[in-house]
Design a protein that fits this description.
about 250 residues, Immunoglobulin-like, alpha+beta, 14 strands, 2 domains, two-stranded antiparallel ribbon
Length: about 250
């Protein structure tokens, strides 16, 4: 019996080593952070309505909590799912701030409120792994597109294709040279149901225009033409106008 007792720790040692090694491997897996597919912070400025706001967007594997830290290390956004939603998990997050007018909050005050720099996203997956991402947020805003057509109360023939156009944007809001990443052109009207026509254009086109088929147009309706200019960091400037059809 004494020999068996002395041999027991020796026999258990390999098993203990294997268990400890497996535990370390499990801990290493748990601490390997998963990168978000997308993480964005951007400004949207409506030059027609003269208002602006900040947007937060992220996308990735299922998570139950997420926070965003600004460049000063302070948390600016925190989201936590609970109960059945926490069990199900979320994969996307999109938050849009209030959009005060420039009469209520100046552009300078707004930009001071949200400083440039790295914004870090930190969350937790449903299996308790770290989920992270980051983005560089800047104050670069495209200048608004000018000479939107049709606009200014124009009337257009609903039976013919409509060529909507505007001047290319070549500088930012402060007069520095800029080549947009893209333009988004949107036409919409509401006649019992909301109808939307949308198309993306490359940002380096010299004479941006879009042909809208007559099938989208109806007579005696008011339409809104919206042009969204986006720079490479994601910040957007919007210009709008309205026209009618006959």
């Amino acid at each position: 019996m004494k020999k068996l007792t002395r041999a027991l720790p020796i026999l258990l040692l390999p098993a203990l080593v294997l268990v400890a090694s497996a535990a370390r491997d499990h801990d290493d897996d748990c601490h390997d952070a998963i990168e978000l597919d997308e993480a964005k912070v951007f400004i949207e400025f409506n030059s027609t309505d003269e208002d602006f706001g900040i947007h937060f967007f992220w996308d990735g594997v299922a998570w139950d909590k997420m926070k965003v830290d600004g460049p000063l290390g302070r948390t600016v956004l925190r989201v936590k799912a609970s109960r059945n939603l926490a069990a199900q998990g979320l994969t996307e997050g999109f938050f849009e701030s209030d959009e005060p007018s420039v009469a209520d909050l100046s552009m300078e005050e707004f930009l001071e409120r949200f400083p440039e720099g790295t914004y870090e996203f930190e969350g937790r997956t449903l299996d308790h792994r770290e989920l992270e991402g980051e983005t560089e947020f800047t104050h670069t805003l495209p200048a608004p597109p000018a000479n939107l057509y049709p606009g200014g109360g124009a009337e257009v023939d609903s039976m013919s294709p409509l060529v909507a156009s505007f001047d290319a944007v070549t500088e930012d809001l402060f007069g520095d040279p800029l080549v947009p990443e893209q333009y988004e052109v949107v036409l919409e009207t509401e006649n019992e149901i909301l109808r939307v026509f949308s198309i993306i254009l490359e940002g380096d086109v010299e004479h941006p225009s879009v042909t809208v088929p007559p099938e989208f147009l109806e007579p005696d309706l008011e339409y809104k033409l919206e042009v969204i200019v986006q720079e490479e960091g994601g910040n957007r400037t919007i210009a709008e106008t309205e026209f009618t059809t006959f």
